[in-house]
Design brief:
Layout (H helix, E strand, L loop, with lengths): L1 H18 L4 H14 L6 H21 L4 H12 L4 H18 L9 H13 L3 H14 L4 H8 L2
């Protein structure tokens, strides 16, 4: 089962964290695995516990490296998908910061996802025009990103 594989992977990541506690990417991976388990969970107490564990893993990564793109991005997506207004507002701030940083750096293709997800969150919150402008902003930096091409052309 996929949850069995995730449990084994989580055990291995926890083992690796004990060996290399200063490796921010291990904490990012731990948070990503835990947050992916939320989709399969229906027990409210378990969802709360998993959410807190994922958040703590992302925070651990960010304590080690406050500018870690993957930690910031994964946490922003996690918050955007949480389904609670407070988390969504936090995610908006996180995405805005990611975009500001991206525009001061050389474009790296995987970072187009920040524009995609930020726009989707704005759209989900009912702000279609802001979503479109974010996607167009991303398209200027990542003109070959098919998702940004399609999203910025949608009516």
């Amino acid at each position: 089962s996929s949850s069995g594989k995730q449990t084994d992977l989580l055990k291995e990541i926890n083992r690796q964290i004990k060996l290399k506690p200063g490796n921010a990417m291990l904490h990012v991976a731990k948070g990503a695995i835990i947050s992916s388990q939320l989709w399969e969970e229906s027990n409210t107490k378990r969802i709360t516990a998993l959410s807190n564990q994922a958040d703590m893993a992302f925070d651990a990564a960010l304590r080690l490296d406050s500018q870690n793109w993957d930690a910031r991005m994964t946490k922003a997506v996690f918050y955007a998908d949480a389904g609670y207004r407070w988390y969504e507002r936090q995610a908006l701030r996180m995405f805005a910061s990611l975009l500001q940083d991206q525009e001061e750096l050389d474009p790296q293709p995987h970072r187009a996802k920040a524009y995609i997800e930020y726009g989707k969150l704005q759209q989900k919150l009912g702000d279609e025009s802001t979503a479109k402008s974010i996607w167009r902003r991303g398209l200027k930096l990542f003109p070959s990103n098919q998702a940004l091409v399609e999203l910025s052309q949608k009516d």
